[in-house]
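Q: Here's a chain of 95 amino acids. Please give me its 3D structure as tokens.
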Amino acid sequence: MAAYIVFIKEHEHDTSAMDTYAKAVPASFAGHELKPLSFYGKVEGLEGPPLMGAVVVEFPTFEAAKAWYDSAEYREARKHRFQGADYRVFIVEGT
């Protein structure tokens, strides 16, 4: 069953760190089956705190999504995201 990682950007505070993150993320895709579904397209918050943007990535299974997120390559990339912006990130299983 498909699973989705959803990234919700709430606030960016270091553009340079985010640029580094954006350059590092593609290398983390190697060896992982994933499909970007939405990448900072038009967004309108309907409930909850304001957001700057969102990304949705599809994986074949919940375990595959978790494996990518916990991979050494993505851990290396995401440290720059942690420095550059505040996000809410979660995995949700499809139906």
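Q: Can you summarize the key feature?
A: The radius of gyration is 13 Å.
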